[in-house]
From TrEMBL, chain A:
Signal peptide: 1-18
Superkingdom, taxonomy of origin: Bacteria
MF GO annotations: thiamine binding; thiamine pyrophosphate binding
Name of the molecule in the record: Thiamine-binding periplasmic protein
UniProt subcellular location: Periplasm
Native organism: Shimia thalassica
Single GO biological process annotation from the record: thiamine transport
Family according to the record: Belongs to the bacterial solute-binding protein 1 family.
Major location category of this protein: periplasm
An example Gene Ontology CC term for this record: outer membrane-bounded periplasmic space
Gene3D superfamilies: Periplasmic binding protein-like II
From TrEMBL, chain B:
Positions of transmembrane segments: 12-35, 55-75, 84-108, 128-151, 192-212, 232-254, 281-301, 321-344, 356-379, 385-403, 442-466, 486-507
First-listed, main subcellular location of the protein, grouped into a coarse class: membrane
Subcellular compartments: Cell membrane
Family matches, as InterPro entries: MetI-like, MetI-like_sf
Protein name: Sulfate transport system permease protein CysW
GO term, biological process aspect, one: transmembrane transport
Coiled coil: none
Membrane topology recorded in Swiss-Prot or TrEMBL: Multi-pass membrane protein
Keyword Transmembrane helix among UniProt keywords: yes
Amino acid sequence: MKYLAFATGMLAATTAIAETPVLTVYTYDSFVSNWGPGPSVEKAFEAQCGCDLKLVGAGDGAALLARLKLEGARSDADVVLGLDTNLVAAARETGLFSDHSVTAEYTLPIEWSDSQFVPFDWGYFAFVKAAELEAPTNFKDLADSDLKIVIQDPRSSTPGLGLLLWVKEAYGDEAKSVWEGLADNVVTVTKGWSEAYGLFLDGEADMVLSYTTSPAYHLIAEEDASKAAAAFDEGHYMQIEVAGKLAASDQQDLADQFLAFMVTDDFQAIIPTTNWMYPAVTPKEGLPKGFETLITPEKSLLVSPEKADMVRDAALAEWLDALSQ
Amino acid sequence: MAGRVIAIRAWPGIGAAAFVAALILGTLLAVALRAEAGRGLGPSEWAALRFTVSQALWSAGLSVLLAVPVARALARRRFIGRRLFISLLGVPFILPVIVAVLGLLAVFGRSGIVNSALRWAELPEISIYGFHGVVLAHVFFNLPLATRLILQGWQQVPAERFRLAAQLGFGSKDMWRIIEAPMLRRVVPQSFAVIFALCISSFAVALTLGGGPKATTVELAIYQAFRFDFDLGRAALLSCLQLVMVGAAALLALKLSDRDGFGAGLDRPVLRWDADTAPKVALDTCVILCAAVFLLVPLSLVVLDGIAGLAQLPRQVWQAAWVSVLVSLASTGIMVALALPIAIASSSRHRWLEAVALLGIAASPLVIGTGLFLIIYPIANPFSVAFPVTALVNAVMALPFALRMLIGPVRDVVQDYGRLSGSLDIKGWAWMRLVLLPRVRGALGFSCGLTAALSMGDLGVIALFADPERATLPLQMYRLMGSYRMEAASGAALLLLCLSFGLFWAFDRGGRGHAEA
């Protein structure tokens, strides 16, 4: 009889769980990892929503979008978190997203208004180097120097695509000749960010394409002040990461609640030291200690989503031409 | 036609091969059907195709060419640590790509051992990045595999043949003409085909060591089609090209390779009277030492690099390790269920079955994963089948290697013992248990070890199916890297290396009951 009681108890427990609404959020892999923002975000949101927040990791930003296109309107996802501005146009084109109702005092370096996508963090791309290295201050000086860099392939990596648009936005028609100048500085091109950063830490290159916030990780998590980002005077390209609600979601209210939660301090305070990016709305207590040591670019570059979608094919062709010599 | 006498039916093998073909072609079809109008293949895809074929030809050619002397040296010599060395030969092959690349760069990279030495000696530095780097890395991965496959060929020569050769006073030339050359004709073309197939779908290694977009392979073009352009039609088309290339190589290899074995022996230990001269001993020692340095130095650096990180491994990594072990054991089981019937069927009239199985490594993992996702998605939640799917796909990917190891020995058993078994009326399970399994134990153990280890390290297909709650060990390793935790990631890589090698060693040793393998 004891077993029967136990089984009944189990059954009751499962039913209770089944009644809790589940909000499914698709995001990139490093967000859900145990070292990313995922676990803390889940805890903070579940404390206030009376729901079960299910974070599902799917590769990186671009893989996330491809995944969504494969699933279409039947997707289990209620919210997609982790697309960046370069992917927004393509995401909008799918027609899968619906309008949001979030308003917030964003602390982004640019004006943000988008009816479908809410920003949650942002950063600047930059070349990371050893702190004591005398680094060039723009792409042309870098091309003239003997310094070796390792970058990511725009076809398989989000930062790689960011660099492509950075050079294109800064130099326009001159971009191709800039890349031709850089060709002998590029040690190699990697599939993703991790490989490139790993090569840099192993001493394969003097600089690696990453973020201005990367040195903060080494400083805060490892108490190592030996890394710095090189400030470029043509400006730094920005990455703004956004989230959006799916029109076909059966949890519209919860999804709205999540997007609103995303721009509050509870969420934003988690971002700097787990995702190593700037929060989209600076929390009341400010940025963590250590972030004040980072470089602040004088000029922010960003191609609008619609334009990014248009120029990237031409920019990629130039890049391939220049580096395949 | 010795092949006609067979104690076991061919249909399970044909069924298994049909299943593999259906899996690969079905996923390809699923992707193609889902495609919207794309732009087809442009000049950049054709350039990628040319690069892919030329690097694969060089890599496979060089791996096999270098493997012949290494395998010969290992076949002729007995020394302390030989078994361990042969087992270690499997390791570069089973390492996750990124780990092996970092190991190679620690030796040949800009701040690697070689360049540090050159700088110290004030000599010009060398650069690993370029076409030669791609080939070097692929040789590093595949030389050990080629060596094992070719060594297997030597081991299939019965001891009696060497005894007879010694009695007849064979010199090196006679040995080559009568025993070694025919044996190599039997194993080399197909070993080449397997490695060629493996190099065709290379991506991260080729890109990283190729030094830039010059080194764009077809697999990278597939990635571009999938995530940059979301052009599924082009992705499917490119994967078709991969299949055609590998299919052509497999058929050619089948045509070139000799099929007759050396006949049965009494399984006496092999004694090589012919190899005891001083120059041969010196040559073999030198060859083995060179191979050992080339293969083991980068591996040792991976191990050294990981020790510090091992202490930092969080709990989740250990959980992931456990999940990975279970998946890889399941994978091994599926592989055996597919490989043995195919090997038996292809040892008689159905030799083409091996070519079918080769498609498993030729097809793009991204396309297989996407296709499976498209097929499963309407029926079931992909997360709930994440691990069975991973185990199945890993088994199919390991199948070509397993078959390459198994077909030779199985064919010998069928040809040499088929008539005797027939006259004794030993059939079916009894034949498997009494005749076949004891004689292919070594090859089967190696195949299981390889499958288990490969499955441990694989990441290819899981991405789309990744279970949100439980990750595999390679996925956790990448997540550590993705969160800047490179040192802990090195620790996870070392754990992965140890577990893969542990599984590989256990199966491989378990198979090698006989003393000489």
